[in-house]
Write a structure and sequence with these properties.
By secondary structure, the chain is mainly α. Helix content is about 70%, strand content about 0%. It is built from twelve helices and no strands. The relative contact order is 0.09.
Amino acid sequence: MAREPEEIGKSQEELEQLLAALRKGKLTGREIYRAVQAFGENNFQAARPEVEALLKSDDFELRFVALKVLTRYWHLAEHWETAYQVMLHDPEVENRFRAAEDLGALQRNTQDGRTLSTLAAVVLNKQERRVVREAAYAAMLEVLHYDPREQFRMATRSFDFEKEVDWDMVRRYC
């Protein structure tokens, strides 16, 4: 079903009102999440300081949406290090695997050696949760050559991690 035009994007005025409400502390929980998501979808970078501040939130979902907006919507290369740190150190496994995905999105089709090396180390880290290792491998493939069909196949779990990972390729970047 097609969405109504007003559901797809927000007006500049609506975004400014959301930002003002966020700054005044009038939004809570899911309202903050939805506001940050709207800022990202509408490329409303006037909210950047507030979005960046949420990277330190106690709420893992707010940390997630903030990083997603900064990396996937706004494509801010300066948040490569942020995504890297989240991938390695966030206490929530969900944020770690999403940060690996964010690194892939930031460096899609670039063959960036630093990103590939970073992701390869995670793929090879047997102490890390499988879902994070899988996301890091998918991100490596995205950095090398993005293939949406391959990404879908891996995401739908018809991918046998131990058997189908190209371990020689992973080790080459580590």
